[in-house]
Amino acid sequence: MDPRTAAQRFADTWQHAWTHHDVDALITLYADDAEHTSMPFRPPHRGRGAIADYIRWSFTGETDPHVTFATPIVDGDQAANEFRVHAHDNGTPVTLAGCVFAHFNEHGQAVRTRDYWHTTEGHH
Q: How far apart are CA 59 and CA 112, in angstroms?
């Protein structure tokens, strides 16, 4: 799959599936042996199962998410994509803003992803 197509599919699927907390849809984006690192100093999650567990954990306490992903910036087999989420975290309005970096294989699956994000109270 063309990396630009893979990157847009990644962004579109994340936008829709995060809104609905659809972990099954999200995990199809990753290769079986993919590696995901969330924030620079956390240990990586290796393999689809570990990534799915992390995503489920991330959704804990989150309600009413409104998710937007920007158009990916693609270079070779990798892409950068900004995102913003307005949600409620255990009842408190929050905004989460960040960026995910993804490397894709020839099948359009993410083989390595890394994200950086920040959360603040309120919707900004």
A: 21
